[in-house]
Amino acid sequence: xxxxxxxxxxxxxxxxxxxxxxxxxxxxxxxxxxxxxxxxxxxxxxxxxxxxxxxxxxxxxxxxxxxxxxxxxxxxxxxxxxxxxxxxxxxxxxxxxxxxxxxxxxxxxxxxxxxxxxxxxxxxxxxxxxxxxxxxxxxxxxxxxxxxxxxxxxxxxxxxxxxxxxxxxxxxxxxxxxxxxxxxxxxxxxxxxxxxxxxxxxxxxxxxxxxxxxxxxxxxxxxxxxxxxxxxxxxxxxxxxxxxxxxxxxxxxxxxxxxxxxxxxxxxxxxxxxxxxxxxxxxxxxxxxxxxxxxxxxxxxxxxxxxxxxxxxxx
Amino acid sequence: xxxxxxxxxxxxxxxxxxxxxxxxxxxxxxxxxxxxxxxxxxxxxxxxxxxxxxxxxxxxxxxxxxxxxxxxxxxxxxxxxxxxxxxxxxxxxxxxxxxxxxxxxxxxxxxxxxxxxxxxxxxxxxxxxxxxxxxxxxxxxxxxxxxxxxxxxxxxxxxxxxxxxxxxxxxxxxxxxxxxxxxxxxxxxxxxxxxxxxxxxxxxxxxxxxxxxxxxxxxxxxxxxxxxxxxxxxxxxxxxxxxxxxxxxxxxxxxxxxxxxxxxxxxxxxxxxxxxxxxxxxxxxxxxxxxxxxxxxxxxxxxxxxxxxxxxxxxxxxxx
Lengths: 315, 320
What we know:
- The complex is a heterodimer.
- The model of chain A has no long low-confidence stretch (mean pLDDT 88).
- Chain A has three domains: 88 residues, no CATH class; 74 residues, Orthogonal Bundle (Arc Repressor Mutant, subunit A); 125 residues, no CATH class.
- By secondary structure, chain A is an alpha+beta fold.
- Chain A contains 13 helices and twelve strands.
- In chain A, a hairpin with a 5-residue loop joins β4 and β5.
- Helix content of chain B is 44%, strand content 12%.
- By secondary structure, chain B is an alpha+beta fold.
- At the A-B interface, loops of A face α11 of B.
């Protein structure tokens, strides 16, 4: 409810001094329509009429759509409908507390693999985008695997077996994985897709999977590349289809059980842990690469990478 | 004509032409595309009835056209007597009412579905020709005309030799470019046919379908190299106009993709023509279009638009 109030106030600020109208669209909200209507009306009372008259609220529920304070004009209704369809298709991921633990686990693992030293809770919070209580709760769960330094900085001291198994089990949902199949009959080579990705120069998209694993462990025992795994920052999630189209218009969202030629995963923390090389390639972090291998049923290779990185970290 | 072997037809055409005329002949259309893609494969055929031959340069077209027509008629080639204008004209006949030179080989059974004929065309006199134009040639039988279309100069640009036969054939990627330029929108004009009006194929759909067939037959997954052929051709053939015509290069193709009915017509003409030997689904043809737009059309449009803005022109031209 606090978020909705805040969004309405943002919209009110946005229309002040402009000629624009603004609509807040709520798609299948968990709050009842009467409750939302009441919040809406109470907020409007504190706004000047020249502002409140230009604000609308659309509640797109499972059974009905409510438009406040009155039905939208035909053109606004059409615009709203487009946004609703887009919102249903590509929902903006909401960061859930339930997945926060895995984001924090990922950061600690990557820092451990990279031997980049212990982190303060504050840094961890900034990297993960969560507040102190969430960080503290996650660190408590991870305590058996942590070294806590005298200045309260923390780092992993061994591979977090149990949390990792949980992460593996939930990874597809946590990472909002999407598969894209090639429908051209003449798939583009992975090298070409990588080259196009490089020329896009996006800082928010990185290569994982077998290619990423080979980047971190050139001796990885695998021949051939079954698919291209990409990791994108959550801020780009609504652009995924566009990014895919630019890589290759032949890439279409795969049907259920259809193998993906390109598989896209989402990382949610505000600061990505991507690395880059001198050729201009951007690489997904080590954790993503291991998860990608497991997801592609390359368990042997996933274990090989995980072991190699852990052994290096323990040394 | 069902199952033309492009190399055989080109050899027959070349052999019938006066030797000094061959260097002025460029074969275009589906036969040229078929030759380009299937030359080494005797199992691949092309369905076409007309073998379109451009005479170029324009300055040599009249003399070459007269010499070729004379040689072929004297060798027993038979005039195709179909269409609106079939009777040779007199000096008083307006150019637009003259018949084109369309000739069947001496042994052809003109009623056969396999019969093919040669048609002579020429390039435009200058880049400023916007409509179809007729150039008169005079034979013993009377006056005929060589039609020319605005974008035939693109098709003839840097044509390739047909083995050692002395004639040339158009580069497929430039035939694709010419068809894109010809159709910045889906026009209502239909191909002449005995079918009911609502069943007739729109000319735009056939020609834009040809673009997609070429894209499929090129058997590449990257169309960016086409830009290196397109831009020099545009600049050479339309030095004062290329930016304005290239800026809307893909508009017709995008319209085709938006219209299911038009796309279906394009697809049908492809699988009954150039793609008759190559299994292609609707989705694959659509993807070929999308790849072509993203790889070649959009970059060329961007260069053209940038070239009209002085501040961006240098950047756009430096990229290609």
